[in-house]
Amino acid sequence: MKEHLIKPGKKIDLRKIDPGDCGKWAGRKEEAKKLLEGLSSKLERLQEVMYAEHKQRLLIVLQAMDAGGKDGTIRSVFDGVNPQGVRVVNFKTPTTTELDRDYLWRIHSQVPARGEIVIFNRSHYEDVLVVRVHELVPEEVWKKRYRQIVNFEKMLVDEGTTILKFFLHIDKEEQKQRFLDRLNDPDKQWKFNPNDVDERRYWDNYMQAFETLLEKTSTNFAPWYVVPSNRNWYRNLVVTNTIVEQLKKLNMKYPELEGNIEDFKQAVQSS
Ligand code: ATP
Ligand code: MG
Predict the structure, then answer these.
(1) For 101-252, where are the alpha helices, taking DSSP H only?
(2) 262 C-alpha to center of ligand 1: Å?
(3) If pLDDT is split at 50, 70 and 90, which confidence band does 12 have?
(4) What is the rounded CA–CA span in Å between residue 84 and residue 49?
(5) Which of 122, 129, 133, 188 to probe ligand 1 with, by most ligand atoms within 8 A of CB?
(6) CB–CB of 220/64 below 8 Å?
(7) Mean pLDDT computed over 22-36
(8) Does the pLDDT value for residue 142 go beyond 90?
(9) What 8-state DSSP symbol labels residue 5?
(10) CA-closest residue to ligand 1 atom 25
């Protein structure tokens, strides 16, 4: 699944990346689901060690168009993981308090602590997406942000945070279908936001903004993955697999108990 990794500096044309792609798993959904079950158990174990070791920090950035599946990814990929060590942060339209400060202020305050996995549901990348598309700040301001973001992430990585960034890539037709599905299901109607329909008019502008950010901010130390996301099961497989592979590289261990185990046992016995 390495093919979904965006190499630093690579020119990106999102129209050439098929959101319905399932790689070698095309037509093998049941097999893929079995594999995913195994990966999910691995993720649970790795996260447990991460929490116990209290050393590493993992930041996962999720970006997508509306109905792109951010919520579903969080629910599925982290299902079964100990909630003690995982935190989801949703970045909505900034408050006045946030707007009075630089755009990274609210982001920096939410980065993971040692032993913690933090999932950003939207992120600082909104500041070069919605902000660019709707010209919420002048071009000369948002243009500088790519470099600032790369520098910010480099600092986090240098200080011991691991960063993985996922763009959940769906197509415009799939989005329309998902909006209709929401409207047709009384349990999902609450998710429908009429503004999302207006936002569809800017689809091409968003794709352009995504292409620029992928080109400018996918680095060796904080890579972007473009995940074909029309099919939820494939999306979950790619995201889970990528996280598991990354966590394995950290060689985490349960901390050793300091002191003499036999002495402790005796102390417990005679207590
Ligand atoms: P769902 O997919 O369930 O609708 P959501 O992530 O879209 O969830 P909403 O409350 O619907 O959540 O939308 C959050 C909104 O906040 C988005 O429209 C997003 O573009 C906007 N937003 C996030 N960060 C910023 C930012 N820095 N500047 C301006 N708008 C922002
Ligand atoms: Mg929304």
Answers:
(1) 105-108, 130-133, 139-142, 145-158, 172-184, 194-199, 203-217, 232-249
(2) 55
(3) very high
(4) 12
(5) 122
(6) no
(7) 95
(8) yes
(9) B
(10) 93
Strand order in the sheet with 224-228: 86-90, 117-121, 57-64, 161-169, 224-228
Q: Is the predicted pLDDT of residue 2 greater than 90, yes or no?
A: no
Residue 229 to residue 18: CA distance in whole angstroms: 9
pLDDT digits (tens, 9 = 90+) for 216-252: 999 999 999 999 999 999 999 999 999 999 999 999 9
Average pLDDT for residues 257-267, to the nearest whole number? 96
Please write the tens of the pLDDT for every residue from 52-85: 999 999 999 999 999 999 999 999 999 989 999 9
User: Distances in Å between the alpha carbon of 20 and those of 116, 223, 232, 233?
Assistant: 32, 22, 10, 11
Ligand lying closest to the C-alpha of residue 134: 1
As for ligand 1, residues whose beta carbon falls within 6 Å of it are 66, 70-71, 91-94, 121-122, 126-127, 130-131, 136, 191, 193
CA of 92 to the centre of ligand 1 (A): 4
Closest Cα to atom 5 of ligand 1: 66
Counting from 1 in the atom list of ligand 1, the atom nearest the Cα of 127 is 27
- d(CA 194, ligand 2 centre) in Å: 9
Share of the chain above pLDDT 70, in %: 100
- Is residue 162 within 8 Å of residue 112, measured between CB atoms? no
CB 215 within 8 A of CB 12: yes
Q: What is the dihedral of CA 143, 134, 136, 193, to 10 degrees?
A: -130
- The pLDDT assigned to 1 comes to 73
Closest atom, ligand 1, to C-alpha of 90: 6
